[in-house]
Task: inverse folding
């Protein structure tokens, strides 16, 4: 705990962070009890954009819930698509052609890179540096263009279908993706020179916002947050789904537990995702992109099914309970950022306000996904 | 003491490296597009709001008023109505309304349409001040095109 200067009279005041704070790209309110510049207590207040996604899912057919998945985590929509279609495929026993799985991995990993790039820009913006955002958006724009050319949309994708994907890719996409991988690899050293090695960034992040492995376990934090605290856990590696076991990639883990570690995890993950995309393009099998016998109206047999995927922010799990009808009986969504945010209250106690903002930025919060 | 000085020097150097990068990029070509004056081409698969397809042979719509799109839509934005007419097989489309205020551009309607009577338009400049501006009468739009 840092030097915690208690004022004589023990006076505290309440500071509202949000609901429209520019540093939290969404509507999250944090009620901070402050003692001068130090935080005594922080209480995140959620629910400003609660849209009842779970209830919506229970009120429409299995297929009609598909567009909702892209609207929870709008930055990594394809992973959410993936989680939902996988659990329904598991429930209904639909086999997916291999090419479709490859396409899912390629697009989801590109989407992960775009999510990390946006986080990178926004995080530095939170810390007060404006220009890296523009560089990151320049690269991200290329990914959006690529994904738009196959999925038809730029942000809230609805590309995966039960039994496959909606569109096949073409030569232009393959060539464009390869060119993009090369481009981003060439740009990464620039990012490191411009930002990572910058003395101001280092002093603002190193040893700031410690989150211990124990705290991660206590609150169920996943994704780069737990990997920055030395926990080697990645759903893609440890509970493999789709065709991920066929690719050779590493899970970046840093032991320092500070904001810098979480920053480094994400920067390394960009490279790992590029590796996955590259291998997937090399091995891409031919064949159909949609299973042949997918019933028009899906009615999975009675039962309780669960599937988790690794999104850019951690593990996203979908649990569906089917009663054999054409709508889910229960749909439970486990969103990673909700758990990652829960530890904020404990982690930021006794911290200076600007440091707490750095910590919050390093958690990579996507508010619509917390509120669902 | 030595470490302290070293940190100052390497720290200052890191700032100059960053400045060097921004200066280098300053002299490189601009990557942004001056939007209303310049536009980028749309990708062929861009999914705008839906539109009725014209049958090349008859010049009419291909829609057979089966109502599948209406049923598939998660947000109930489509209203399809048809009537029986003398001497025409099947139903004739009398109304096709899309409430674009609710549409999530998911494309489930297009996929569910067996005769391929609807498709995505390439419209993206959709700004308006009234809700009514987004209740599209697709049948009229198709006729206006003819
Ligand atoms: S795109 Fe989706 S939401 Fe829009 S009209 Fe079609 S089915 Fe309905
Ligand atoms: S599914 Fe196609 S044919 Fe049927 S009502 Fe809709 S547009 Fe017409």
Result:
């Amino acid at each position: 705990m840092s030097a915690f200067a208690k004022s004589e009279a023990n006076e505290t005041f309440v500071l509202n962070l949000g609901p429209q704070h520019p540093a939290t790209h969404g509507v999250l309110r944090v009620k901070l009890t402050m003692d001068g510049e130090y935080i005594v207590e922080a209480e995140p207040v959620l629910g400003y954009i609660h849209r009842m996604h779970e209830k919506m899912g229970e009120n429409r057919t299995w297929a009609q819930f598909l567009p909702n998945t892209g609207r929870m985590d709008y930055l990594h929509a394809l992973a959410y698509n993936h989680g939902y279609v996988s659990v329904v495929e598991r429930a209904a026993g639909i086999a997916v052609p291999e090419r479709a799985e490859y396409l899912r991995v390629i697009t989801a990993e590109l989407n992960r890179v775009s999510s990390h790039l946006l986080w990178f820009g926004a995080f530095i913006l939170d810390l007060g540096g404006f220009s890296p955002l523009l560089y990151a958006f320049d690269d991200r724009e290329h990914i959006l263009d690529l994904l738009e050319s196959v999925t038809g949309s730029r942000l809230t994708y609805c590309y995966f279908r039960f039994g496959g994907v909606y569109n096949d890719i073409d030569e232009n996409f393959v060539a464009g993706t390869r060119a993009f991988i090369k481009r981003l690899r060439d740009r990464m050293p620039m990012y490191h020179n411009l930002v990572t090695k910058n003395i101001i960034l280092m002093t603002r992040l190193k040893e700031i916002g410690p989150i211990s492995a124990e705290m991660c376990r206590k609150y169920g934090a996943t994704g780069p947050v737990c990997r920055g605290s030395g926990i080697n856990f990645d759903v893609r590696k440890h509970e493999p789904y789709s065709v991920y076991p066929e690719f050779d990639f590493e899970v970046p883990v840093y032991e320092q537990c500070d904001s810098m570690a979480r920053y480094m995890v994400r920067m390394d993950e960009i490279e790992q995702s590029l590796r996955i995309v590259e291998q997937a393009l090399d091995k891409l099998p031919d064949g159909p992109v949609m299973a042949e016998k997918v019933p028009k109206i899906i009615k999975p047999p009675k039962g309780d099914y669960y599937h988790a995927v690794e999104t850019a922010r951690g593990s996203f799990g979908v649990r569906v309970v089917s009663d054999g009808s054409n709508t889910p009986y229960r749909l439970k969504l486990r969103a990673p950022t909700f758990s990652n945010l829960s530890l904020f209250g404990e982690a930021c106690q006794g911290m200076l306000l600007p440091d707490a903002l750095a910590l919050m930025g390093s958690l990579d919060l996507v508010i619509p996904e917390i509120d669902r | 003491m030595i470490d302290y000085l070293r940190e100052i020097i390497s720290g200052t150097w890191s700032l100059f490296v960053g400045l060097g990068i921004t200066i280098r990029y300053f002299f490189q070509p601009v990557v942004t597009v001056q939007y209303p004056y310049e536009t980028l081409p749309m990708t062929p698969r861009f999914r705008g709001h839906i539109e009725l397809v014209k049958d090349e042979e008859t010049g009419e719509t291909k829609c057979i008023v089966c109502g599948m799109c209406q049923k598939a839509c998660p947000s109930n934005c489509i209203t399809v109505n048809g009537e029986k007419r003398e001497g025409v097989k099947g139903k004739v489309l009398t109304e096709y309304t899309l409430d674009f205020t609710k549409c999530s551009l998911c494309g489930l309607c297009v996929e569910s349409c067996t005769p391929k009577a609807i498709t995505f338009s390439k419209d993206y400049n959709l700004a308006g001040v009234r809700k009514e501006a987004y209740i599209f009468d697709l049948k009229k739009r198709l006729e206006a095109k003819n």
DSSP finds 15 helices and eight strands in chain A. Residues B 63-69, 80, 112-113, 115, 117-118 surround iron/sulfur cluster (ligand 2) (CB under 6 Å). Chain A touches chain B through 31 residues (CB under 8 Å).
